């Protein structure tokens, strides 16, 4: 290759790298200017004061106070409003009232500044802004779609939890760390959504958990532990006592007959697969050699270190199982 062409290619490559670095740095910044966030906070406080002057227990008003406090906790007017709420002092209407339409308009304009979720801080801001839009306008389709996209991506969308997080924690988010021996596995704190099929014993999350970490799990959708008309169940599984009772009596439950598995085998599998209490057909987790009941929603501490797996609490053959669960889990320090 001629030297001048090689030099030109290297120059073009350098320009691309610089552009990509600049783009990465841009996406790390909040798309909403600090001045706009303060304006949102002040208008939220004024709207809250209007509502709470009529009814100190107004639900929207109390959420608006929490929203304003999250972003502008040192504001004197807001501190005074919170103090009056705490000590049951009569709240007067604000001098400059703000209507729901005015606040919704400002929220909508702020939401338009988002182009993509970007980093954790941006996802948190998106969740808060679009949740506040739904607070004022519950059927807002744009908000419904964005919140569902965030939820599918494993981001937090519950407003109470979002507002309880410290926004400063997202200024310098911790990078995701990978196992140097096997970079496919994440070893740092992480929140992730995966699909767990019913027809395989264990699904690898590609996350390694250290002993002492806290794991939070939420599961949606349904699966079934058998072919034909065997009923679907959620992550909490079937009622053990009813399963064994009906099997012994040879009865059907609604439209199906239970698998011809002995009660003895059920008990032995239960003892070997889970040390805790778990329903057959429920979601369970595994870290190392330790099994943890998970169900629809749970929080547990890792007693061992190892790769985190999820799977169905099955007592017979996996091959005839159908369906899957969508699992959102978080690994955190506390």
Describe the structure.
- The protein has two domains: 34-170, no CATH class; 178-332, Jelly Rolls.
- A hairpin with a 2-residue loop joins strand 8 (252-253) and strand 9 (256-257).
- The chain is an alpha+beta fold and 334 residues long.
- The strands form four sheets. Strands 3, 5, 6, 7, 12 and 14 form a six-stranded antiparallel sheet that branches.
- It starts with a helix and ends with a strand.
- Mean pLDDT is 78; it is low at 11-28, 168-173 and 251-275.
- The protein has helices at 3-28, 34-54, 59-71, 76-86, 100-111, 120-136, 141-152, 159-164, 240-249, 263-273, and strands at residues 178-179, 182-186, 190-197, 203-209, 214-220, 223-224, 232-233, 252-253, 256-257, 283-287, 290-293, 297-301, 306-312, 322-332.
Based on CA atoms alone, the radius of gyration comes out at 26 Å
Work out the oligomeric state of the chains in this entry. single chain
> Alpha-carbon distance between the termini?
57 Å
Shape from CA axes? elongated
Number of domain units: 2
CATH architecture of the largest domain: Sandwich
Question: Number of DSSP helices?
Answer: 10
Q: Characterize the main sheet.
A: 6 strands, antiparallel
Please write the CATH class name of the largest domain.
Mainly Beta
List SSEs in N-to-C order. HHHHHHHHEEEEEEEHEEHEEEEE
């Amino acid at each position: 290759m001629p030297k001048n062409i090689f030099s030109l290619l290297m120059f073009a490559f350098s320009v691309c790298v610089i552009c990509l670095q600049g783009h990465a740095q841009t996406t790390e910044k909040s798309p909403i200017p600090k001045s706009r966030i303060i304006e949102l906070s002040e208008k939220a406080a004024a709207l809250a004061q209007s509502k709470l002057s009529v009814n100190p227990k107004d639900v929207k008003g109390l959420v608006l106070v929490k929203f304003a406090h999250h972003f502008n906790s040192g504001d004197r007017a807001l501190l005074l409003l919170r103090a009056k709420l705490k000590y049951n002092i009569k709240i007067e209407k604000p001098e400059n009232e703000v209507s729901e339409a005015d606040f919704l308009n400002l929220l909508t304009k702020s939401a338009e500044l988002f182009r993509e979720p970007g980093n954790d801080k941006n996802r948190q801001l998106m969740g808060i802004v679009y949740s506040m839009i739904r607070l004022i306008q519950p059927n807002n389709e744009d908000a419904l779609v964005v919140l569902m996209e965030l939820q599918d991506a494993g981001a937090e969308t519950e407003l109470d939890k979002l507002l309880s997080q410290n926004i400063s924690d997202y200024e310098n988010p911790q990078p995701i760390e990978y196992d140097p021996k096997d970079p496919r596995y994440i070893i740092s704190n992480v929140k992730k959504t995966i699909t767990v099929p019913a027809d395989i014993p264990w699904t690898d999350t590609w996350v390694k958990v250290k002993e002492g970490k806290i794991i939070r799990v939420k599961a949606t959708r349904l699966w079934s532990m058998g072919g034909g008309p065997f009923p679907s169940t959620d992550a909490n599984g079937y009622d053990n006592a009813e399963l064994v009772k009906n099997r012994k009596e040879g009865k059907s439950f609604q439209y199906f007959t239970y698998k011809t598995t002995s009660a003895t085998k059920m008990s032995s599998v239960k003892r070997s697969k889970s040390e805790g209490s778990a329903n057959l057909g429920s979601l369970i987790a595994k870290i190392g050699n330790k099994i943890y009941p998970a169900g629809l929603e749970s929080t547990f501490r890792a007693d061992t270190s190892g790769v985190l797996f999820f799977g169905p609490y099955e007592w017979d053959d996996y091959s005839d199982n159908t369906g899957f669960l969508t699992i959102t889990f978080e690994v955190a320090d506390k």
